[in-house]
Amino acid sequence: MLTETTLKHLKPKDAVYKVADRDSMYVTVSVVGTISFRFDYMLTPTEN
């Protein structure tokens, strides 16, 4: 789970990286230290 404390301790690295929360939500941390929340979703799930 991404808590406030966890977000405060995220530091920039040499490349962009992700920190997952749950249910397709995650945070990306850029090289300069920008934290962006992201959410992956599907509008129409495919059935095989």
In short:
The chain has one domain.
Fold and architecture overview:
Helix content is 10%, strand content 29%. It is mainly beta and 48 residues long. It has one domain (4-39). It starts with a helix and ends in a 9-residue tail after the last strand. It has a 3-stranded antiparallel sheet with strand order 1-2-3, with no helix packed on it. It has one helix at residues 4-8; strands spanning 17-20, 25-29, 35-39.
The number of distinct structural domains comes to 1
Structural class: mainly beta
pLDDT average, as an integer? 91
Per DSSP, the total helix count is 1
Low-confidence spans:
none
How large, in whole angstroms, is the Cα Rg? 13 Å
User: What are the secondary-structure elements, in order, as H or E?
Assistant: HEEE
Strand order of the largest sheet: 1-2-3
Q: How large a portion of the residues is in β-strands, by DSSP E?
A: 25-35%
- The N- to C-terminal Cα distance equals 32 Å
Shape annotation: elongated
Helical fraction: 10-25%
Question: How many β-strand runs?
Answer: 3
Largest sheet: 3 strands, antiparallel
What's the structural blueprint in terms of helices and strands?
Elements: H1 4-8, E1 17-20, E2 25-29, E3 35-39
Antiparallel strand pairs: 1-2, 2-3
Keywords:
three-stranded antiparallel beta sheet, 48 residues, single chain, mainly beta, 29% strand
